[in-house]
Design goal:
Elements lengths: L29 E4 L2 E4 L4 H5 L11 E5 L7 H7 L6 E3 H14 L13 E2 L8 H16 L7 E2 L7 H4 L11 E2 L7 H13 L2 E2 L5 E3 L1 H23 L1 H4 L6 H27 L4 H4 L3 H8 L8 H4 L18 E3 L9 H16 L4 E3 H19 L11 H9 L2 H14 L4 H21 L6 H5 L9 E4 L3 E3 L2 E3 L3 H7 L6 E8 L6 E7 L13 E6 L4 E10 L5 H47 L10 H5 L3 H36 L5 H26 L4 H5 L4 E2 L7 H7 E3 L20 H23 L1
Antiparallel strand pairs: 1-2, 3-4, 3-19, 5-6, 7-9, 8-9, 10-11, 12-13, 12-17, 13-20, 14-16, 15-16, 15-18, 17-18
C-alpha cells in the first residue's frame, strides 16, 4: 500500500496543483445580523481566502469540544493539540488541508457525507495517497468497482484491519505471535499489565509493555536470587520462614507486654498487684458465658507477671505450655511448635534473651521482604520468570512490533480518509457557527450551541444551552441582560443535565423558584423532565414593562390589605381571649350584696354611656371630613376635565398613564437593546469576538407564546364561569351615585 500520511492536518499545505485562490484581495461579502457585520461563506473562493480574512471580523475565536450539538469525533479531529478547545488556527489548518486534497471543494457545501473518489485531487501528494487508500478500503469491503466512499464504510475497523495482518499501529495481537514461548509471555503480559487495543479491535501488546514486563521479571528474579545466595540469613526456617514469621507476629505484641510487666515488677515489687487483673474484672466475667474465643479474655495479660528470680532464672521468662491466658493458648502453642522448637529446641518457657534472639532472626527476612519489587508480576513463580527470561520471547515480540510499525500499510491513510469524510460533512457547518453566526441568526437551522427547546409557562424557548458549571455560568451569564431560567433536567436511564433558557417574550408573573416544572426536548427529540432551579431576572418586553408599575402597586396594596386584615384578626382573637378570661375570673369571684337602687340613682346619666356617644360622634365627624376631602379632590379633578375640549380628555388620560409607565418602559427598552449572546457562550468556555445582540424583534422569534391556531374557533360559554352576586353590582352602583352626588354638590356650591 501507499506511504503513511501525516496523522493530523498540517498547518501549512505545500504547493501542489489544485484549487488556488485568485490573485488580489478577495471581494468579501458581509450582511448585517444581530447588530454586527457577518461575513458570507458560500463559495469555494471564500474558503480559499479564509486565511486572509482579518480575525477581528470573525464571530468566534475559540469554542469547547464538549457540550455542543455537533459530532464529537469531528471536534476531536479538529482539536489537533488535544486541549479540549477548537481555535482559529486549527480551523484554518483544516480548511487548507481539505481544500488541498479535494479537486473541487464545492463538495463541502453539499449536504451529506458521501465522497466521490473523483472529487479527490490526485495531483496533490495527500490527495493521491487518500485515493489509493480509498481504493484499498473498497477492495477490502468487496466493492472494488465502487466510486463513492461513505463514513459507514470506515465504521468497523475489524473489517479494514484484520488481526492477522500488520497494520502499522505498533500493537501486536495474539494472532500475529507464533506458537511457543512468545505466546505464553504474551498471555502473561496481557494478564498482568493489561491489553492495548489493536486497530483490529483485538487485545495486543506494545513495545513499552514488553520492556516493562521483562524489566519487572528480571527485578523479581534478582530479588529471589538474594535468598538463594544467603539462605541462612534471609530464610532461617527455609520455605517455612514466611509462615513462621506470621505466627511470631500474631503474639509479638502480647509477649512484649508480658515481659514489660515482669521487668516493671522487678523494678518495684509494689507494682505487681496493680499489674495483675483486678477481682472486679473476674466478677464481671463470672456473669457471662466464657470460651477461649471471648474478647473479654483476650484483653487480659498473656500470663501473670513474675519478677526475675521467682521463676527459676535471673531474667523473666514467658510460659509456653502452662499458666497462659486461655484466649492465647492456641497461638502460643503455634509459636512453640513452628518457631521455638525449630530454632531453639524443646522449651516450656522462653526467656527474654531467647525471645529477642528469635525476633532478630526474622529482621533480615523482613528487610528482604521490604525490598521486594512492587509489580503485577509478583504472583508468577520464580522458575517461570527465569524460563521466560531465558527464552527468545522478548526478541520475538520486539521483532514483531518492529515489523508492524514498519509495515507497508494504509492505516494512517484510512484515518486521514475518516478525517476527510467528517470534514466534508461538518466543516462548513462549523464555519457558520464559528467564523460567522449565520446558523443562529439565519433561522434555517439551529446553531451548534442550541441544545433544544424548553416548554414552560405556555411558551417555548429556542435559545437553550447546556450548562457544565452552574456556578461559573451564573456568575457571567447575567451580563447578557437576558431573562434566564436555569433548569435541572432528568430522563430515565440518562445522566441528569443542566440547561439555561433565555426567555425573550411573554411575561414572568407566574415564574416560581424552585419547583416550576416543564418539558425539555433535546435536538434528538427526546423529552426530559425540567425543573426550574434558578432565575436571573431581566426585562422581557416593553409590553410587560408598561404594566409593571400597576402590578407593583397592586401587589403593594394587596400586601398592605393582607397585613391590615391579619392585624385586625389577631386583635379580635386577643380581645375574645381576654373577655373569656375575664368572664371566668368574674364567675369565680364572690358576688357582693348590691345596695338597693333609688329612683334618684336611676335618674342619673351614665358616664360610660356619655363617653361612648362622644367617641362615636368623633368617628362620624372624621369620616365626614374624609369624604368631604375626597369629594373636593374628585370635584377638582372632574371640574378640570370637564373644562377641557372633548379631544383633550383622552390625551390627559394617556399622559397620566405615560407618566406612570413611561420610565419603566424606557428603562426596559434600553436594556432590551443591550441584550447579548456573548456572555451566555463565554460562560460555557467560548471566546466570542463580537457583540452578538439579541434585539427586540429577533428575541421575539426565539420564544414563542401560546396562541390559538389559525382558523380555530372558540366558544365563550364557560359553564364554570364565576357568577357575580347581584348585591355587589348594586353596591358598586350605590358608591358611584354617592360620589357623583358629592361631586355635584361641590360643583354647584
Amino acid at each position: 500500500m501507499t506511504v503513511a500520511a501525516p496523522d493530523a492536518a498540517p498547518d501549512v499545505i505545500p504547493p501542489a496543483p489544485g484549487p488556488t485562490a485568485r490573485p488580489g484581495p478577495h471581494p468579501w461579502r458581509f450582511y448585517r445580523y444581530g447588530g454586527f457585520d457577518q461575513v458570507r461563506i458560500e463559495t469555494v473562493d471564500d474558503l480559499l481566502h479564509l486565511g486572509s480574512l482579518d480575525q477581528k471580523l470573525w464571530s468566534v475565536l475559540a469554542c469547547p469540544t464538549a457540550g455542543l450539538e455537533f459530532d464529537e469525533r469531528t471536534l476531536q479531529m479538529l482539536d489537533t493539540d488535544g486541549d479540549g478547545r477548537i481555535r482559529a488556527p486549527e480551523v484554518l489548518a483544516a480548511v487548507q488541508w481539505v481544500c488541498g486534497v479535494l479537486r473541487d471543494p464545492e463538495t463541502l457545501f453539499q449536504p451529506g457525507s458521501d465522497l466521490p473518489l473523483a472529487a479527490l485531487n490526485r495531483e496533490h501528494p495527500d490527495g493521491a495517497r487518500l485515493y489509493a487508500a480509498a481504493r484499498d478500503v473498497l477492495g477490502v469491503l468487496g466493492r472494488p468497482e465502487a466510486d463513492v466512499l461513505t463514513l459507514a464504510d470506515l465504521a468497523d475497523p475489524a473489517l479494514l484491519f484484520p488481526a492477522s495482518h500488520f497494520n502499522g499501529d505498533g500493537v501486536v495481537p495474539a494472532e500475529l505471535v507464533p506458537a511457543g514461548s512468545a505466546q505464553g509471555v504474551l498471555a502473561r503480559a496481557l494478564d498482568c499489565l493489561g491489553a492495548t487495543p489493536d486497530r483490529s479491535g483485538q487485545p495486543g501488546i506494545t513495545q513499552a509493555q514488553v520492556d516493562t514486563f521483562f524489566a519487572d521479571a528480571q527485578a523479581l528474579a534478582d530479588w529471589h536470587a538474594q535468598a538463594e545466595a544467603d539462605p541462612a540469613g534471609l530464610l532461617p526456617l527455609g520455605a517455612d520462614t514466611e509462615a513462621a514469621a506470621q505466627v511470631f507476629d500474631a503474639v509479638a505484641a502480647k509477649v512484649d507486654d508480658y515481659f514489660t510487666r515482669c521487668r516493671l515488677a522487678a523494678f518495684d515489687a509494689s507494682a505487681l498487684q496493680p499489674l495483675s487483673p483486678a477481682e472486679a474484672a473476674y466478677a464481671t466475667l463470672a456473669a457471662e458465658s466464657l470460651s477461649a474465643a471471648s474478647a473479654q479474655l483476650a484483653v487480659l495479660p498473656l500470663a501473670l507477671a513474675v519478677p526475675p528470680g521467682e521463676g527459676g532464672g535471673e531474667e523473666p521468662s514467658v510460659p509456653l505450655a502452662r499458666g497462659i491466658n486461655p484466649a492465647w493458648e492456641a497461638r502460643m502453642a503455634a509459636l512453640r511448635e513452628h518457631v521455638v522448637r525449630p530454632c531453639l529446641g524443646e522449651r516450656d518457657h522462653l526467656t527474654f534473651s531467647e525471645w529477642t534472639d528469635l525476633a532478630g532472626r526474622f529482621a533480615a527476612w523482613r528487610a528482604w521482604q521490604a525490598d521486594k519489587p512492587a509489580t503485577a508480576l509478583a504472583g508468577i513463580p520464580v522458575q517461570e520468570l527465569r524460563d521466560m527470561l531465558a527464552s527468545d520471547a522478548r526478541e520475538t515480540l520486539t521483532r514483531l512490533i518492529a515489523q508492524d510499525v514498519a509495515a507497508d500499510t494504509s492505516a494512517e491513510q484510512v484515518e486521514a480518509l475518516d478525517r476527510l469524510l467528517h470534514f466534508r460533512r461538518d466543516l462548513v457547518t462549523l464555519l457558520r457557527n464559528f467564523v460567522t453566526l449565520s446558523d443562529f441568526y439565519g433561522g434555517a437551522s439551529k446553531a451548534i450551541f442550541q441544545a433544544g427547546t424548553l416548554y414552560l409557562d405556555q411558551r417555548s424557548c429556542d435559545l437553550v444551552l447546556r450548562v457544565a458549571d452552574m456556578a461559573r455560568h451564573t456568575a457571567l451569564a447575567p451580563l447578557s441582560g437576558t431573562y434566564l431560567v436555569y433548569c435541572q433536567c432528568a430522563r430515565q436511564g440518562e445522566a441528569p443535565i443542566q440547561i439555561v433558557a433565555a426567555m425573550t417574550a411573554g411575561d414572568a408573573d407566574d415564574m416560581m423558584v424552585p419547583g416550576r416544572n416543564g418539558i425539555f426536548y433535546d435536538r434528538a427529540g427526546r423529552d426530559w423532565n425540567a425543573s426550574v432551579v434558578k432565575v436571573v431576572e431581566a426585562p422581557i418586553s416593553v409590553r410587560q414593562a408598561f404594566w409593571t408599575p400597576y402590578k407593583r402597586a397592586g401587589r403593594l396594596i394587596g400586601d398592605q390589605v393582607r397585613k391590615f386584615a391579619a392585624a385586625k384578626d389577631k386583635a379580635v382573637d386577643e380581645r375574645a381571649a381576654q373577655r373569656v378570661a375575664a368572664a371566668g375570673a368574674k364567675a369565680e369571684a364572690p358576688v357582693p350584696a348590691a345596695p338597693s337602687a333609688t329612683a334618684a340613682d336611676a335618674a342619673k346619666p351614665s358616664t360610660q354611656q356619655a363617653f361612648d356617644i362622644a367617641k362615636f360622634a368623633g368617628i362620624f365627624a372624621a369620616i365626614g371630613l374624609a369624604l368631604g376631602a375626597l369629594g373636593t379632590a374628585l370635584a377638582a379633578v372632574v371640574t378640570g376635565i370637564l373644562q377641557l375640549a372633548w379631544w383633550q380628555i383622552p390625551l390627559v388620560f394617556a399622559g397620566v398613564m405615560l407618566l406612570i409607565s413611561g420610565p419603566s418602559m424606557l428603562l426596559a427598552w434600553l436594556k432590551l437593546r443591550q441584550r447579548s449572546l456573548g456572555p451566555l457562550l463565554d460562560a460555557n468556555g467560548w471566546a466570542v469576538n463580537v457583540r452578538a445582540r439579541i434585539n427586540i424583534p429577533f428575541g421575539a422569534s426565539l420564544t414563542q407564546v401560546a396562541r390559538l391556531p389559525e382558523g380555530a374557533s372558540r366558544s365563550m360559554n364557560d359553564p364554570f364561569e364565576e357568577k357575580e352576586p347581584p348585591w355587589r353590582n348594586y353596591g358598586i352602583l350605590a358608591v358611584v351615585v354617592v360620589v357623583m352626588l358629592i361631586v355635584y354638590v361641590q360643583i354647584i356650591s
